[in-house]
Amino acid sequence: MSPPSQNFDLERIWEKLANAIDAAGSGKEVLFLSKFAILASKELNDGQQVERLVDIALEDLT
């Protein structure tokens, strides 16, 4: 089975997020990322998927 195709460029998304974090300014990075996460979660409309993604994002950070 082949992996699902991605309809977007992850490098472009990475760059967009990095620029947005910079634009948010010093001390507001966490606020921006929290707001982004909530908005993205609303768009996904799948609580279990969001929880799984949170767990994945935490891997290798601690």
Report on this structure.
The chain is mainly α. It has a domain at 27-62. It has three helices and no strands. The longest helix is centred in the middle third of the chain and has 16 residues, at 29-44. The radius of gyration is 14 Å and the shape is globular. The mean pLDDT is 90.
Quick recap:
With 62 residues, the protein is mainly alpha-helical. It is 69% helix and 0% strand.
Topology:
Elements: H1 10-24, H2 29-44, H3 47-58
What descriptors fit this protein?
mainly alpha; 62 residues; globular
Low-confidence residue ranges: none
What is the beta-strand fraction? under 5%
The sequence of SSEs as H and E is HHH
Radius of gyration: 14 Å
SSE class: mainly alpha
Q: Output mean pLDDT.
A: 90
What's the N-to-C terminus distance? 33 Å
Shape: globular
Biggest sheet descriptor: none
* Number of alpha- plus pi-helical segments: 3
Total count of strands: 0
